[in-house]
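Hello, quick one for you while I still have it in my head. My current little project is about how a certain protein chain folds up. You're getting the sequence in one-letter code plus the fold written as tokens. Would you mind checking whether the tokens look sensible for this chain? Here's the protein in full, and shout if anything looks odd to you:
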Amino acid sequence: MLERVTAQEYVRPSRNGRTRPLLLVCTNAAGDEVELYAKVSARCDEGAVNLAREAIAACLAGDLGLPVLQPYLVELPAVWIASVPDAALRADLTASSPVAFGSRVAGPQFGAWHGGVTLHDDMVAKALAIFTFDAIIQNYDRRAENPNCLERGTQLRVIDHELAFMHRLILGWRPPWTPGALEGLTVPGRHIFLAGLRKQNLDFAPVRAAWSTLSDGRIDLYAASLPTVWAKAASDATDAIRLIKDARDNIDACLTEIQRVLT
């Protein structure tokens, strides 16, 4: 579910991103090269907890058929860290977990979503699925000023989910199947697809089907796939898995609340 690769070459830092991801060339078990952006725990507010949230979200997104970039667990060997020429980066790598979270590079011509992009008719179904995904996993970090979404024509790629599943830290939090729980998403600019989806005739049936077919065993694999060196994230991973299962079991109520937000 989460393929392991090993860092081979540091290329450069990302031009964007609060966690300052690193563009790396890595190799997989077959010896093939993979170009990806890696997030290291020392550059995350909650360390490996953020990496675990990101990994679980990526696994879930993939199973839901969302356009997420392929996720990886990235081994950072000590000998490779020692070869990195940037002293400050080398210190961050040394202070980090020896396993980072990686996302495959989107490819050429993908750019950041911005206010001038039109949500075309053939993008609506994916946009609705992404909006539902964000609402359920409590990801409020796909905002107009920080879209965390790439686009190329009518193609979308969603990125950066380390701030999802933070619900247990929110005072007075209500689950997304509770009436009124998603009121915060009605604020203009809170989600990049809010305005566009409000203008559409929405079909929730494919979204419902995708969530309803998730099995307990499959969802449990999301947490089971996390590396043991992220042990401090175990409690948060358990909470994330519980939220996913509960939302699946209450998907009709979740969609009713989401439909209210988009009306």
